[in-house]
Amino acid sequence: MMRRRSHPRLLLAAMLASGCLAAGCGRQAPAATPASPAGAAGQAVAPASPSTGQHGRGRSGRAPAAGAARLPLDWPSNIPIPAGRLQSSAGSAGQWTALILAIGSARDVLRSAATFYLAEGFTAVNDSMLRRPPFAITIGVENRDHSPTETYLVVAVTRTR
Predict the structure, then answer these.
(1) Residue 156 near residue 137, CB atoms below 8 Å
(2) Looking at residue 58, what is its pLDDT?
(3) What is the mean predicted confidence (pLDDT) over 80-90?
(4) CA–CA separation, 52 vs 89, rounded Å?
(5) pLDDT confidence bin for 77, thresholds 50/70/90
(6) In what order do the strands lie in the sheet with 150-159?
(7) Cross-strand partners of 103
């Protein structure tokens, strides 16, 4: 009998593809305007700043750099993202995905992201799935280009009801 191997890149690609399919990859969120409320979804996330639950601003309160990736406009305002640099995101209609470049090994980033969401009131289903009605979060990680210190973190959020 042949043993199946786990392919983290396939998992990462599948999670990103599902987010794009749900959102319609061709669409892009419009740029935030100065009149947008602070912390609203759709604003750019500042590179490598710790998340405070306010989309788009780190603890310093500074505005994000021009051209930075943005969360979809309808990203749930009560779902923060872990620390790191937002690389891309997609989603709408109850399914969203964010790709974050985080510092640390894949194992450490997975553990850190799970701990982050547990502190936000989610309950662990397993190592990479958490729930807090009406949302479920699935976390996927892969070291960046064989780097032991940089990891891609995928956060997939689904409205369950």
Answers:
(1) yes
(2) 40
(3) 96
(4) 18
(5) very high
(6) 85-92, 95-103, 150-159, 135-143, 129-132, 123-126
(7) 150
CA 99 to chain centre: 5
Separation of alpha carbons 51 and 59, rounded Å: 7
Q: What is the per-residue burial (b if ≥16 Cβ within 10 Å, else e) of 86-100?
A: bbebbbbeebbbbbb
Residues 6+ apart with CB under 8 A from 72: 23, 29, 41, 42, 89, 90, 91, 92, 96
Q: Which residue has the tokens 């989603």?
A: 91
Residue 160, phi-psi category: left (phi > 0), alpha (psi -120 to 50), beta (remainder): alpha
What does DSSP assign to residue 128? Answer: T
Q: 18 phi and psi, to 5 degrees?
A: -65, -40
